[in-house]
Amino acid sequence: MKYQPQQHPKPTLPSPGDIVRIHKKTRGKFAGKKAMPGEKEYLILNTWTSSYGSIKLSIIDDKGEEYFTTITCSELITREGGDRYKWVNAKYAWMEKTYVPAFVIPQAGYNGKKAYSVTNKSVLVKNLTPTNGNINIGFWISERHCHPSDWKKLRETPLKQVASVRIPEWMARKNNLLPTPKPF
């Protein structure tokens, strides 16, 4: 009989939309506030892996305040949020504090109609006024990186007309909608 190695299921990692609780203080370095241990629950906004291989979490509390921690300091409570209404309001409050307004123009695809991604969850746009003397090339705004009320407006905006949307600051800087800060 041929030897078959035992297949162990991979542990499921928390992902955006899941609810976690912090069980110990992180030693990780973050630009923002660190989450403190306790009974408080948090909604995961984003996950990423550091250059050392540790998985980091960007999380918000029920008031929309953003915190950071590592995966080893948190425990998964539920998948895709428990009390949806509470967490939707918290995420909206966080977006109101952190997203910046941008004026964009929806662009046409190869068929002359508004360009959408294959999944219909991204729209090709061009910035109205590029900064830093850069050329004005198009970029994609995904539903995930757009305020929900603005996403609806962006989808309804006709080609070559200006739409006002709120997007994360990093996206605005990356696509020359805001000037890049000069290093010291």
Tell me about this structure:
The protein has 184 residues and is an alpha+beta fold. It has two domains: 19-82, SH3 type barrels; 98-174, no CATH class. Helices cover 16% and strands 29% of the residues. It is built from three helices and nine strands, in the order βββββαβββαβα. The chain has helices spanning 84-98, 148-156, 169-174; strands spanning 19-22, 41-49, 55-60, 66-70, 74-78, 99-106, 122-127, 138-142, 163-168. The protein has a five-stranded antiparallel β-sheet. A four-stranded antiparallel β-sheet has the order 8-7-6-9. Strand 2 (41-49) and strand 3 (55-60) form a beta hairpin. The longest helix has 15 residues, at 84-98. The radius of gyration is 20 Å and the shape is globular.
Summarize the structure.
The protein is of the alpha+beta class and about 180 residues long. About 15% of the residues lie in helices and about 30% in strands.
